[in-house]
What we know:
By secondary structure, the chain is an alpha+beta fold. The chain has 5 helices and 12 strands. The strands form 4 sheets. Strands 4, 7, 10, 11 and 12 form a 5-stranded antiparallel sheet that branches. A 3-stranded antiparallel sheet has the order 1-3-2, covered by helices on one side. The chain has a two-stranded antiparallel ribbon with strand order 5-6. It starts with 7 loop residues before the first strand and ends with a helix.
Amino acid sequence: MQPSSDFIIPYAKQPGLTSFDSMAAVKKAVGTKKVGHTGTLDKFADGLLVLLSGKLTRLADTIVNGAKTYEVWAEFGLQTDTLDPEGRIIAKNELPDYSTLLKVLPLFKGALKQTPPEFSAIKINGKRASDRMRSGEKIEIAEREIEIFKIELKGIITDSGLEFTEKDFLNINAELKIRYAHISVECSKGTYIRSLVRDLARKA
């Protein structure tokens, strides 16, 4: 009797690996070419990938439709073309202060329209948007409806390098300039965290 190759695989993706690199490693370990994912993570990100193999790949749509939770470190003051740390810097902006960041965060809770990053796997006429951008094409990506169920500030690092967590928030100077913010986000499928940080920075 041949062992089953039908698994739900919670895979801890590490930074520097693409989600597809991770799937390739799982295919080799499980001994099957039939492995599917329930959502991908950017190359620079780490976190849980839920992979399915064999007959259980049929569960992909059900799992994809569930809410997702992200722990995000957002950097302010710089924007890259890819909206991630690996991109080319295209803009430098003023840092937000602590009080402004607190005011704008609640604006991103609820049903929203979001424009995905130009450097993404979204298909435009059968070709990935990121591939079209790298070949020098000008593209437009349509807005999509998403929902943010929860968005909370968990910590900050100021421009001078001071770090504060939730327990310190009552005693923070409202005018402190924020370089990094640790934000917890619970959201619907189709949400791009890179776009959320971009839009948050624009408001702040």
